[in-house]
Amino acid sequence: LSFGQGQKDYKPTEENLDARKWFQEAKFGMFIHWGVYSILGDGEWVMNNQNIPIQAYEKLPTFFNPTGYDAEAWVKMAKDAGMKYITITSRHHDGFSMFDTKANNYDIVDSTPYGKDVLKQLADACHKEGIKLFFYYSLLDWHNDDYYPRGRTGNDIAGRGAGEWDKYIAFMKAQLTELLTNYGEIAGIWFDGHWDQKLWDGKRFGALQVDWHYDEIYTLIHELQPQCLIGNNHHLAPIEGEDFQMFEKDLPGKNTTGFGTSASDVGQLPMEVCETINGSWGFNLQDRQHKSKEELIHYIVKAAGYGSNLLLNVGPMPNGKIQEEHQQSLKEMGLWMRKNGSTIYGTMAGPFLPNDKFATTRKGNTIFLHILDGSQKVFLEDFGKKIKDVKLFPDQSKLTFQQNKFGLFIEVPKDKIDSVDTIVEITLK
Ligand code: H79
């Protein structure tokens, strides 16, 4: 018995390969965690963390009335930040669908006073504005009785009777069919929750306890929309049928969070790192861990230095607005990207892995050296290329450099140093 296998003999179509190329070059997207949990202002895991019984949590949708929601405004905010795509939670672990599903009544249209499909509005706005749309979809479901056997997280359903796993798989397929039929072109599906069904000894994950039927699910998605990119936050090397690899709160191959990925698990697919602006995915009233402009810029630069995208999260409030501080961060990112985006968009990983001093990106014969620690002097070990010239970006003033058999030595005048990121453009012969 081998659970967790992917789509057998998967061969991506031309459209899919084109979509991967687009994705690889896009570099910056907006993650949106929004659901009925946003009402409580305690993150998207509140049902689990506060051990709220299903029957009590079911009252939340009756309060959800985001009259301030303006999908166009969100899309414009993403665009102004320099983001090329949006990934939104269609259904998170709490099992509540933010779209008009017919698979049950636990959704935005059937169970809230708002009564309108928020994903449909977002899809229309994205298509109008030329922003690609991905749907986050939770594999685990704390609300559905057929999510049985239960995983390690969520609520006890004692007394509700055991459900049927096969029915749960059918439920997911029905929902994914809706998501890929009723919302126009969907750029990707972002799965999360795989790890809920793995054994855990307090330190390490063990064997998978259920069959997620990825073969059928991935095949279904690619049949409905061949270009649709599949990613799965399983913290493993990519499995067959997946089109990109994602990394949660860790740069590729890093494992600072305890559930990251080892370097050997980094595959060959386009990559994406997701991170929060503060410390929370879903709206959190108490979160004071707002990252600085410098931290956020360093994060996208380092991600690009790995060849990876950054999917930067906002957790909109229950009224449908994005909190002011996050809007401010998005504006700052936008200003920086407008000025320096050509050293990020469409680049590949540079010749050196990012570190705390610098990161490198590459486009054709040009290498962009991002100096992140305010240094005037940088030494790059020989990487087997002859250098034609070295200039400051964007002003194109010439910089002095020396190349010998050991490497390349660059010096930037003090008055040209930018404490956040000094960008040097290195042209190869
Ligand atoms: O949607 C966001 C989060 O809600 C979700 N993924 C992002 C994008 C997420 N939250 N936590 N995780 C993913 C990883 C889960 C780790 C845990 Fe555990 C599983 C916490 C408790 C069970 C592993 C086992 C770590 C501690 C025990």
Automatic annotation (TrEMBL):
<keyword id="KW-0326">Glycosidase</keyword>
<feature type="site" description="May be important for catalysis">
    <location>
        <position position="274"/>
    </location>
</feature>
<dbReference type="GO" id="GO:0004560">
    <property type="term" value="F:alpha-L-fucosidase activity"/>
</dbReference>
<dbReference type="GO" id="GO:0006004">
    <property type="term" value="P:fucose metabolic process"/>
</dbReference>
<comment type="function">
    <text>Alpha-L-fucosidase is responsible for hydrolyzing the alpha-1,6-linked fucose joined to the reducing-end N-acetylglucosamine of the carbohydrate moieties of glycoproteins.</text>
</comment>
<dbReference type="GO" id="GO:0005764">
    <property type="term" value="C:lysosome"/>
</dbReference>
<dbReference type="Pfam" id="PF01120">
    <property type="entry name" value="Alpha_L_fucos"/>
</dbReference>
<dbReference type="InterPro" id="IPR000933">
    <property type="entry name" value="Glyco_hydro_29"/>
</dbReference>
<keyword id="KW-0732">Signal</keyword>
<dbReference type="InterPro" id="IPR017853">
    <property type="entry name" value="GH"/>
</dbReference>
<protein>
    <recommendedName>
        <fullName>alpha-L-fucosidase</fullName>
        <ecNumber>3.2.1.51</ecNumber>
    </recommendedName>
</protein>
<feature type="domain" description="Glycoside hydrolase family 29 N-terminal">
    <location>
        <begin position="5"/>
        <end position="341"/>
    </location>
</feature>
<dbReference type="InterPro" id="IPR057739">
    <property type="entry name" value="Glyco_hydro_29_N"/>
</dbReference>
<dbReference type="GO" id="GO:0016139">
    <property type="term" value="P:glycoside catabolic process"/>
</dbReference>
<keyword id="KW-0378">Hydrolase</keyword>
<comment type="similarity">
    <text>Belongs to the glycosyl hydrolase 29 family.</text>
</comment>
<dbReference type="InterPro" id="IPR016286">
    <property type="entry name" value="FUC_metazoa-typ"/>
</dbReference>
